[in-house]
Structure formats: C-alpha cells, structure tokens
Amino acid sequence: MRIWDDPWIPAGTTRRPRTPRGVVLLSKVAELIDPRTGTWDSQLIRDIFWEEDAANVLSIPVRVDREDFIAWHYDNKGLFGIPCA
Length: 85
Fold this sequence. Notes:
This protein is an all-alpha fold and about 80 residues long. The protein has one domain. It has two helices and no strands. Helix 1 runs antiparallel to helix 2. About 10% of the residues are buried.
C-alpha cells in the first residue's frame, strides 16, 4: 500500500490521508510499522500526520499473524464498485 496514493485509511471519502505529504520520504504503509515490535510506530505516525489522520491510522489493527489483503468499501449508496480517480 502506498501511503499517499492508495485508499487505506478508514475515514473520509477518499480513504487517503488529509495530511499533505510535504517533504516526507516514506512512501509505503509498511514503513510506518516498527520492525522490532510489528506494531505501528506511533511516534513516527504522530510526527508525520495531522492529529485526525494519526488517530485513524493508529485505530487500524496490525496483525502480524495474517497476510495483508485488499478490501473494498461500499459507497454512500451501499454499493461496491470501481473507485474513480
């Protein structure tokens, strides 16, 4: 998952960060996870994102015992479809 381009945050209509990228060099969601603990690097996330985005990211459970998977969210009519760019 790409931090700034993919819809991965469970909030808002775009499901992308509202925080501007600025000069942040990180590009993958996996880079936000502490490799030693397998959990979110909460300080890094709070340093990079606005408070609302940080809270939404930190609310996503990290499951080290499961493979990642892509899921779709329904639209405001309750339908699943291809997102428009």
